[in-house]
Write a structure and sequence with these properties.
The complex is a heterodimer of chains A (115) and B (118). With 115 residues, chain A is mostly beta strands. In chain A, strands 2, 5, 6, 10, 11 and 12 form a 6-stranded mixed β-sheet that branches. In chain A, strand 8 and strand 9 form a beta hairpin. Chain A is globular. In chain B, 0% of the residues lie in helices and 52% in strands. Chain B is globular, with a radius of gyration of 14 Å. Classes of the chains: A mainly beta (115), B mainly beta (118).
């Protein structure tokens, strides 16, 4: 079974700082990779996804993520954060051979951006 | 768009009672919906996969007699927490899978239901 780990539980940074959130997964087969964001009081929203092709994926709101197959990683980045990026971020993995498109989520990272 | 709603958003109940939570896909049909449980400061744990017209598939360790799932139509799945106890208090989130042309059909998430059992 696959598992997903996110290295940071909490991140606090100031506006305009750069953000990088780590995500590693364990699964030997082919995967689809996702980053979701949950703003305070709101539902989960998809930030970006990787299925195949260019390992550098660009998502909404200026976020990007890089898939490094050799490291089993899919780290999320944003060059300059805004106060509105305060949210919880979840990395998720779908093993392509898994029936039903099941997602396995990481533990989440709470990001607080100070104005 | 792909909007998923949940009702109710919050529910407080007494220990021993049953609570039903609805998950609806508002603008698309979903043969498959998923139910997750989110503990405080923790991630989403998949509880079960709800399949329209057939029995749900439960993840290991989830009691199917405790968490009854009914996927009665292509836009509605319900989760009933039977004989609820305080340890069932949690945030329950559903998602609906939107069928597409690719190999992966994206899940869209509902806003969640906060269950508190007294």
């Amino acid at each position: 079974a696959q598992s997903v780990s996110q290295h940071n539980h909490h991140v606090i940074l100031s506006e305009a700082a750069s953000l990088e959130l780590g995500c590693n997964y364990s699964y030997g087969g082919t995967v689809n990779l996702f980053w979701y964001v949950q703003y305070p009081g709101q539902h989960l929203q998809l930030l970006l996804k990787y299925f195949s092709g260019d390992p550098l994926v660009k998502g909404i709101k200026g976020f990007e993520a890089e898939f490094i197959k050799s490291k089993f990683s899919f780290n999320l980045r944003k060059p300059s954060v805004q106060w509105s990026d305060t949210a919880e971020y979840f990395c998720a993995v779908n093993a392509r051979k898994a029936a039903g498109n099941k997602l396995t989520f990481g533990g989440g990272t709470r990001v607080l951006v100070k104005p | 768009g792909a909007v998923v709603s949940q009702h109710p958003s919050r529910v407080i109940c007494k220990s021993g009672t049953s609570v039903k939570i609805e998950c609806r896909s508002l603008d698309f049909q979903a043969t498959t919906m998923f139910w997750y449980r989110q503990f405080p400061k923790k991630s989403l744990m998949l509880m079960a996969t709800s399949n329209e017209g057939s029995k749900a598939t439960y993840e290991q360790g989830v009691e199917k007699d405790k968490f009854l799932i009914n996927h009665a139509s292509l836009t509605l799945s319900t989760l009933t927490v039977t004989s609820a106890h305080p340890e069932d208090s949690s945030f329950y989130i559903c998602s609906a899978r939107k069928e597409g042309s690719g190999s992966y059909n994206e899940q869209f998430f509902g806003p969640g239901t906060r269950l508190t059992v007294l």
